[in-house]
Task: inverse folding
């Protein structure tokens, strides 16, 4: 493992600076707390990174069904689906970064699938029944999280017990969709346990565009089980055990070898995924020193029909982390971490490949002034194939006035090529597409900065945010056409993304909450062309109104601007907007009925040319708690 004197010097300087700090904010005045940005509980006003938090209350009000539906309302995040109403690949792009540049965590445990082409995560399979909140951290986060966090981190945090309760759910609606579920929650001072099970079945719609004569419905089925156990044997010890299991199947369509268009097919695929994570924490010296050890494993299997060249994909993601956080005084907190990660991928045409990475990182949080928090960090990754790589990150959060905060960050990222990108030999859609790996690929790197201003007004309790950002990627990996139907992977010398994110939340009336956001994103693939699947403009407008204490009505509009379908495309997909409506009524304290109307204006749009998307759809449901 090679060493860098510059890297070591930067870390030492940060520690020396922090050692002279003697003043800090009072933890008793903490408001909202986030954990993903610093890997420890930190008041959000002390976080210099751009952080978006979505709570379970917001999720329930807007009746979001999947994490993907939540993400498409977040500034700087674009979501793409491979058609249909569910069961198909759904990916997210953060501030122009590629889908595989986002690290996805559940309760801090990584769940990206190494068997996907670029290690991306399929958000379609992740429902929200057991989710307490979602934290989205924008910009390079490799210093704390390693290779996959080159573009950002999404952490889905599940619910913990708040007492003894049973919740039953049932819902039905368009496309013969039915969903049932139950949550059992048990809690005491020392033990908290939540068990959730849900089942979703839908006849769906044709994945292929109907204007080409495709009428066959492509249904999907999904069963999800989650279990979250927290044990507190004494006031200084915490043990968390998380288990998730999913099993599903989905119909799919194939590309015609004659017309080269997506057409009806009897094809289908099956998936299973399991996640296991355990974390133990112990605090010493009056809670000033916390040591934490965690281990996790995520396994995913996809089985495709025999007509495809690859009939099975298996991905395993194992990680062990050892953290120590020392709070020398209320103004100074140091975190040191050691990690070992192993990624394994195997398909019916690729022999099993395993990649191991050993890492060490350090982070220093300190407050030289009462309202100023500085965070410095550095990391060294020793990759089995690509050797040692260093990353760093620095952030500042400065509360210049009681209701005004300036945030800024600068960081670097590193991502090794995926196993598929190196060794792929896959065929898709009855052999129409064939991908070959490139063992000469180089790791992707990034450098990104952002600066933002947050201000709260007394008028209508308005809270506003504006952030400017820029990311520069080197050796960006992309697929390219070798010969008709045959693709491989290559590095782009340089690509960029930059833009602005604006958001506002206000309460014009006592029971009315209005929120809006807008993202302007400029990207360059190194040849003066916009990167594919990154719209120049994206916006969201939402109004949530409580007519009476028991009745809630919501409206939401989503706009997506023009964008290229593929990097090789010469034409752009058209812009579109959709409007959704929700309502709920509490029949009793423990009984709620609800309904929603998705795409109520029946707008026709497409994320990809050959793929169909749903028109207007209505759903209604019942939730009972005991």
Result:
């Amino acid at each position: 493992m090679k060493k860098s004197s510059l890297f070591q010097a930067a870390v030492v300087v940060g520690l020396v600076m922090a050692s002279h700090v003697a003043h800090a904010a009072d933890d008793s005045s903490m408001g909202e707390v986030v954990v993903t940005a610093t890997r420890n509980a930190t008041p959000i006003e002390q976080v210099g990174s751009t952080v978006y938090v979505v709570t379970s209350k917001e999720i329930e009000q807007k009746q979001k069904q999947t994490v993907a539906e939540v993400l498409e309302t977040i500034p700087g995040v674009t979501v793409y689906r491979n058609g249909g109403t569910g069961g198909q690949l759904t990916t997210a792009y953060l501030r122009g970064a590629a889908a595989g540049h986002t690290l996805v965590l559940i309760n801090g445990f990584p769940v990206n699938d190494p068997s996907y082409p670029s290690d991306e995560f399929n958000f379609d399979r992740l429902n929200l029944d057991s989710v307490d909140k979602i934290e989205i951290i924008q910009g390079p986060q490799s210093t704390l999280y390693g290779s996959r966090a080159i573009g950002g981190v999404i952490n889905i945090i599940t619910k913990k017990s708040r007492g003894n309760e049973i919740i039953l759910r049932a819902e039905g609606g368009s496309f013969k969709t039915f969903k049932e579920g139950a949550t059992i929650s048990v809690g005491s001072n020392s033990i908290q346990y939540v068990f959730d099970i849900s089942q979703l079945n839908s006849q769906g719609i044709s994945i292929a565009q109907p204007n080409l004569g495709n009428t066959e419905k492509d249904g999907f089925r999904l069963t999800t089980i989650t279990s979250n156990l927290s044990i507190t044997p004494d006031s200084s010890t915490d043990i968390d055990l998380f288990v998730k299991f999913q099993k599903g199947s989905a119909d799919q369509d194939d590309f015609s070898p004659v017309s080269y268009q997506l057409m009806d097919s009897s094809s289908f695929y099956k998936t299973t995924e399991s996640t296991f994570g355990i974390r133990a924490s112990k605090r010493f010296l009056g809670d000033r020193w916390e040591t934490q050890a965690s281990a996790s494993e995520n396994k995913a299997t996809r089985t495709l029909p025999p007509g495809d060249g690859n009939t099975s994909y298996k991905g395993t993601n194992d990680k062990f982390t050892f953290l120590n956080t020392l709070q020398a005084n209320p103004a100074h907190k140091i975190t040191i971490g050691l990690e070992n990660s192993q990624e394994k991928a195997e398909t019916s045409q690729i022999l099993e490949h395993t990649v191991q990475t050993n890492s060490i990182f350090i982070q220093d949080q300190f407050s030289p002034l009462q309202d100023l928090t500085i965070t410095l960090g550095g990391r060294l990754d020793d990759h089995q194939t690509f050797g040692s790589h260093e990353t760093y990150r620095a952030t500042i959060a400065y509360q210049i006035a009681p209701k005004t905060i300036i945030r800024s960050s600068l960081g670097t990222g590193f991502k090794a090529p995926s196993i598929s990108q190196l060794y792929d030999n896959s065929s898709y859609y009855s052999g129409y597409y064939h991908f070959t790996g490139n063992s000469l690929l180089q790791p992707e790197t990034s450098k990104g900065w952002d600066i933002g201003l947050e201000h709260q007004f007394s008028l209508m309790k308005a809270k506003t945010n504006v952030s400017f950002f820029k990311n520069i990627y080197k050796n960006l990996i992309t697929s390219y056409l070798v010969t008709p139907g045959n693709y491989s992977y290559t590095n782009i010398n340089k690509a960029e993304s930059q833009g602005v994110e604006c958001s506002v939340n206000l309460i014009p009336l006592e029971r009315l909450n209005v929120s809006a956001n807008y993202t302007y994103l400029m990207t360059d693939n190194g040849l003066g062309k916009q990167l594919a699947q990154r719209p120049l403009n994206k916006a969201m407008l939402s109004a949530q109104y409580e007519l009476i204490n028991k009745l809630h009505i919501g409206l939401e509009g989503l706009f997506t601007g023009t964008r290229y379908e593929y990097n090789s495309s010469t034409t752009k997909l058209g812009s579109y907007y959709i409007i959704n409506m929700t309502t709920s009524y509490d029949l009793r304290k423990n009984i709620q009925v609800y309904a929603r109307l998705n795409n109520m204006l029946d707008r026709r749009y497409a994320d990809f040319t050959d793929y169909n998307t749903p028109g207007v759809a209505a759903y209604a449901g019942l939730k009972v708690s005991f």
Summary: The CA atoms of residues 163 and 187 lie 5 Å apart. Residues 1-30 have pLDDT under 50 and may be disordered.
